[in-house]
Amino acid sequence: MPIKDKSKYPANWKEISLYIRHTRANNKCEFCGVQNHAVGWRCAQGGFHEQGSALCEGKKLIKIVLTVAHLDHDTTNNDHDNLRALCQRCHLRHDLELHKANAAETRAKKINSQQKQLF
Q: For 42, how many CA atoms within 13 A lie in the half-sphere containing its CB?
């Protein structure tokens, strides 16, 4: 996931991220174990099937890209115990409640803005 506001991250974030993904996690998602840059598809149960397997015939293929997640969602807490190398699926699932809360806040602000314009 692209970083929208790089000012929230330390100057050496690139090195931290690289260490977490490559050295500590050995280029694999620390939740589901899928390999970084693997190409394949996910079944309904969440399993990953690599390109070239018979199960991939006719499926939309995806490329796995590891990112580094803050377990406590605090981008200033870069303690290695708070960081995990995650694939897109696992990172989105980990952040789901945060995304829901942010979306609700955005909707509420939009409604407030529209109501103020009416008066």
A: 12
